[in-house]
Amino acid sequence: MIIGIIGSGAMGAGIAQVVATAGHTVRLLDQNADALQRASSSIQANLTKLTEKGKLSADDAAASFARLRPTRDIGSFIDCELVLEAIVEDLAVKQQLFRELEMLVPPDCILASNTSSLSLAAIASACRQPERFIGIHFFNPAPVMQLVEIIPAVQTRTGLAEEVRDLVQSWGKVPVLTKDTPGFIVNRVARPFYGEAIRILEEGIADVATIDWALTELGGFRMGPFALMDFIGHDVNYRVTESIFASFFYDPRFKPSFTQKRLFEAGYYGRKSGRGFYDYAADAIAPEPNRDEALGRTILHRVLAMLINEAVDALALNVASREALELAMTKGVNYPKGLLAWADELGPATVLQTLDALYDEYHEDRYRASPLLRRVVRQNQLFLRHEPAAQQ
Ligand SMILES: NC(=O)c1ccc[n+]([C@@H]2O[C@H](COP(=O)([O-])OP(=O)(O)OC[C@H]3O[C@@H](n4cnc5c(N)ncnc54)[C@H](O)[C@@H]3O)[C@@H](O)[C@H]2O)c1
Predict the structure, then answer these.
(1) Class level of CATH domain 185-392
(2) Taking the complete model, does pTM exceed 0.85, yes or no?
(3) Would you call 76 a catalytic residue per the annotation?
(4) Is 363 labeled as catalytic in the residue annotation?
(5) How far apart are alpha carbons 373 and 339 in whole angstroms?
C-alpha cells in the first residue's frame, strides 16, 4: 500500500516511521524543508536505535528507510491509497489541504486526519467525497505508544472504520473505535487527572508534592498530575483544557483553572522553560511530600472517583465500548488499570458515595455522578463482570 503523510513534525515523522516499518511505501510531505530534513534524520536515528536494541534487523531497518520518500511536491501523492495529515491544528488550514488533495488522489484513496481537538465532521465538510474521510489519532511518540483512536465522522461511509481498524492493527498498534466527540476517549476521560488535582491544590488540602506522591505511590500512576503537566507543558495542556471546555458547551465538569492559566500566562510552561509547578533549576531542592497515608488515600479516591465518573459517562453516552475505554486508558496514557476495572475493584457504590459527598458539599455540577454509575449501583452490578457486587 502506498501511504502519504502530510506534516513531518513530531507526529508526522513518528507515524511515517510506523507505516514504513510495517512495509508500506511512504510519501512524507512538509512545506518546510528543514522539518522534512529533521524528520528523516530522526527516523534514521530511531531505526538505528531499534537495531542496536535487537528489535529490528539491520536489513529491515535499511529497507524501512528506503521505503520512505520525503518530498515537498504534493503532485507525488497521485498514487496514494491512504493519506493521513498531521499538519498544524487549524481547521481552515486542514480544510484547504483536503480540498487540494482531493483533486489529486485517486477516487478510492482514504483521507485521514490526526487531529486531537477538531471535529472530524467539520474537516470532512471541505471534501467533495467526505464518505472516504476518517480520523486516525496517534499518541506521542507514535512509534512507542500503542493506542490509536479511530474516529468515523458522520459523513464516513459504513465499513470504513472497520477497514482502517484492521489496517492499523496490522501495523502492530491497538486501535479503538470512538465517536466524533470532543477529546475522543483519552483526552476526554483523562481531564480530571489534572483538573481535580489542581482543585485539591487550590483548596489547600495538600501541596503539589503530596498530591503527586498520593497518585504515584498509592495509586500506581507512572507520573503524578503536576509532574505530568510540567512534562507536557502548560502551553499545550492548558490550551487542550480550554478547547475541551468550549467544545463541551462549557460543561462545568471540564472547567479550566486559574492556577494553570496563570502559569501559562507567566510563561512557566514546565520542564521546557525551567519552571512550572516545580522548579527545574539545577540547584532547586525538590519539595518533600507529606506521606500521611489517610490524606493520600483521600486525595487518590477523589481523583479516581472523578476519572471513573468520566469513563462511565463516556460509556453511558456510547462514546466507546467498555473494552475500548479500558484499552484507551492503559495503552494511550499508561494508567495502571482500566478505569472500569478500577471502579469494580473499589466497588461502584464506594465511587458513587465519594462523588455524592463532593456534590453535597460543593453543590457544583462538576461532581454530578453519571446516571449509569447510579444505575449500576442500584442494580448491584459491576462494569466488567456481570455477577452481583460484593456487599459494601
Ligand atoms: N504533539 C502531540 O502530542 C499530538 C498528539 C496527537 C495528535 N496531534 C495532532 O497532530 C497534528 C500535528 O501535530 P505535531 O505535534 O506533529 O505538530 P508539529 O508542529 O510538530 O508539526 C506540524 C508540521 O506540519 C507542517 N505543516 C503545517 N502546515 C502545513 C501545510 N499546509 N502543508 C504541509 N505541511 C504543513 C509544519 O511545517 C510542521 O513541520 C496536529 O493536528 C495535532 O493536533 C498532536
Answers:
(1) mainly alpha
(2) yes
(3) no
(4) no
(5) 12
